[in-house]
Amino acid sequence: MTKLSETGFQFGVQDAPLTLTVFTNLACPHCAAFFNNYETELLPAIENRQLRLVLKPFDKPKIGLLKGNLVHLFLDYEDQARVNPIILQLFKDQAEWKALTDSELQTYLNENYNLEVQPGNTERSLTITQEAVAFDATSVPTALLSKHGGTPVKIEQAELTQELQAVS
User: Fold this and answer.
1) Record's InterPro entries (predicted)?
2) How far from each other are the two terminal CA atoms of the chain, in whole angstroms?
3) Domain limits of the chain?
4) How confident is the model at residue 37 (pLDDT cuts 50, 70, 90)?
5) pLDDT score, position 164
6) pTM of the model as a whole
7) 3-class DSSP state for residue 37?
8) DSSP-based three-state secondary structure for 51
9) 1 vs 11: CA distance, rounded Å
10) Residues 6 or more apart from 101 whose CB is under 8 A from it?
11) Quick one: 9-167 is in which CATH superfamily?
12) What gap in Å lies between CA 118 and CA 98, rounded to an integer?
């Protein structure tokens, strides 16, 4: 597999020279840290049409990530304009909602963000898991960078910063 599906949450324009795909889990503290620089580094590149960001919520069978798997069921892929900012906010508020029980978390998502379980998300999760396996994304976050539609390759955050500076 050399291409990734469009399954995921899209930020930016389709024809940006760089596409950053991130396999992520909303309960992962490393994933939250990965997006600490969103407003200072990623957002300007997205707004300047240099970068398209694709977040792929990756369900992982790991105790510390199970709350993220639950949240992923509520993310509406059909209403990304509304949900994308919610995803970024959930990373910021991760410590707060991770302390909730599963039942409390469902109520929290419904009352704070008007999110409901999305029946199609199980199929989307399977697609994302297949892609993660194909690209050896064994941990979260795993970032893949594609230049001008080329084959995505794994990239570390420091390398990403260099790539963004080179394209600006």
Assistant:
1) Thioredoxin-like_fold, Thioredoxin-like_sf
2) 30
3) 9-167
4) confident
5) 87
6) 0.95
7) coil
8) strand
9) 23
10) none
11) Glutaredoxin (3.40.30.10)
12) 20
What is the amino acid identity at position 131?
Answer: E
- At 124, which helix (H) or strand (E)? helix 121-134
**Distance (Å) of CA 20 to CA 15, 54, 103, 158:** 12, 6, 34, 13
Question: Of 73, 63, 71, 16, whose CA–CA distance to 44 is shortest?
Answer: 16
Written as one letter, the residue type at 2 is T
C-alpha angle 90/36/57, rounded to 5°?
A: 45
Secondary structure in 3-state letters for 58-117: CCCCCHHHHHHHHHHCCCCCCCHHHHHHHHHHHHHCHHHHHCCCHHHHHHHHHHHHCCCC
